Amino acid sequence: MVFTEDILPEKSWNVNLNWNKKIYSKYGAIYDVDLSVFKTVFSNRILPDYDTNPNQIIYSNLDGKSVTQGLTVNTNGVFASGLKINLGATFIDSKIIENNISETPFLTERFSGNYKISYPFYKPNITVDLSGTLIGPMKLPLLGPLDPRAPYSPFIHIMNLQTTYKANDVEIYAGIKNILNFRPAANSIAGASDPFGSGFDPSYVYYSNQGINGFLGVRYHIK
After folding, report:
1. For the chain, does the N or the C end have fewer beta carbons within 10 angstroms?
2. Model pLDDT for residues 112-163, shown as the tens digit of each residue
């Protein structure tokens, strides 16, 4: 890592507009809709430079400005049967402006989303939760024009499942994380076979390398 100057603290201006609406259905369902529009303008932004020298990560204050703006939508539904559905999405426009040139920063997605579906069974007292995260493609730093790796990450979908059994003050839960077994490509780290060599490059990593896995646990509530 190289610092080309005495780094100044970042500064930012933030604007956020929010709208919320709650809707009651005659069938006992409750819907909640939340909409937010946001914009953040940074000055003195500290950004890593991967392009000038592929063997270095060069840090300096941005001589320009960085703008992140977008829209977030969240919807929650609670039904008489006990079913709960939560949906959320964020659309992001992020750019770096320097010398009147605008470009997209590395490792910044234009879309992200999440969902959770929960349903309770009363006999036995078991709740099933299905949740997930969605992440759109991100621009990735390459080692140069001859780097064979993809310049953008794939669309990411992480799905999880959990069941919880409740008996008085005790909860027993079990589940599976990353059901779809998503993992970055095997070549996502250049030089991974020689981590102490000059070709080792972890800056390309855009998500965890942990694949599908299970878990089991117990909670005890003390009153």
Report:
1. C
2. 999 999 999 988 899 999 999 999 999 988 877 777 888 899 999 999 999 9
What is the pLDDT confidence band of residue 101, given thresholds at 50, 70 and 90? confident
pLDDT at 199 over 70: no
Instruction: Report DSSP state, residue 202.
Output: G
Q: Which residue has the tokens 């909670």?
A: 219
3-state secondary structure of 204: helix
Give the angle subtended at the CA of 38 by the CAs of 36 and 39, to the nearest 5°: 175
- φ, ψ of residue 157 to 5 degrees: the values are -135, 110
Instruction: Please check whether residue 213 is in contact with residue 177, taking contact to mean a CB–CB distance below 8 angstroms.
Output: yes
Among 77, 82, 85, 108, residue whose Cα is nearest residue 95: 108
Cα(92)–Cα(88) distance, rounded to whole angstroms? 13
Region of residue 33 (phi > 0: left; psi between -120 and 50: alpha; otherwise: beta):
beta
pTM: 0.82
**The pLDDT value given to residue 15:** 96
Which amino acid belongs to residue 200?
F
Structural domain boundaries in the chain: 1-105, 114-223
Higher-confidence residue: 41 or 196?
Answer: 41
Question: Mind listing the pLDDT tens digit for each residue in 42-69?
Answer: 888 887 777 777 677 788 888 888 999 9
Query: Are β-strands 58-61 and 2-3 bridged in parallel, bridged antiparallel, or unpaired?
Result: parallel
